[in-house]
Design the sequence.
């Protein structure tokens, strides 16, 4: 599940070509190299106002066991807009969720519970490491219930990370749902079925 960027394209477009990988059933990982320094990227993970520019607003208690209240409003992530897919219409005005922080090691590691469902909560881990003036961000989403959830998670994180890269680079991002729709189709081809 790896693709090479096309030469001559904007860096933003290149970032969207860096597909996530399935590490094992129920676990996906995406990596991005972002403009640093590491403290700046950490702020975009942990501070409500900055996080709201690419993912979700909401307060986060900065400790293990702390609560993160997140509100995702996809329409606020870019001035560019796209229609919301029918199955997500109920979240058109935003989706609010509560998460528990499972690891908190500033400015390098943040893990929190994510979602819920029949098999319980999944977990998302953000790992940061400095690479000169840049920062490697590794996002690992574990305990995804099934293949369709993994496809949605890959397309979602990929879209959000493309927006984060654009924000950190001073560019206006594409509309979230434009990115997500295209990426979901690609991940439908890339994420293996349980029988594979």
Sequence:
């Amino acid at each position: 599940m790896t693709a090479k960027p096309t030469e001559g394209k904007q860096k933003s477009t290149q970032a969207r070509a860096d597909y996530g990988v399935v590490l094992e059933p129920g676990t996906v990982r995406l990596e991005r190299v972002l403009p640093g320094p590491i403290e700046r990227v950490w702020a975009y993970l942990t501070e409500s106002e900055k996080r709201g520019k690419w993912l979700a607003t909401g307060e986060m208690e900065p400790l293990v066991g702390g609560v993160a209240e997140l509100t995702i409003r996809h329409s606020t992530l870019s001035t560019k807009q796209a229609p919301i897919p029918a199955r997500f219409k109920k979240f058109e005005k935003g989706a609010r969720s509560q998460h528990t922080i499972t690891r908190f090691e500033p400015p390098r590691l943040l893990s929190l519970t994510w979602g819920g469902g029949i098999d319980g909560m999944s977990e998302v881990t953000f790992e940061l490491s400095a690479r000169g003036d840049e920062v490697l961000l590794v996002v690992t989403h574990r305990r995804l219930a099934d293949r369709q959830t993994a496809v949605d998670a890959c397309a979602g994180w990929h879209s959000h990370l493309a927006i984060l890269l654009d924000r950190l680079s001073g560019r206006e991002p594409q509309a979230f749902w434009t990115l997500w729709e295209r990426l979901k189709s690609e991940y439908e081809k890339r994420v293996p079925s349980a029988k594979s």
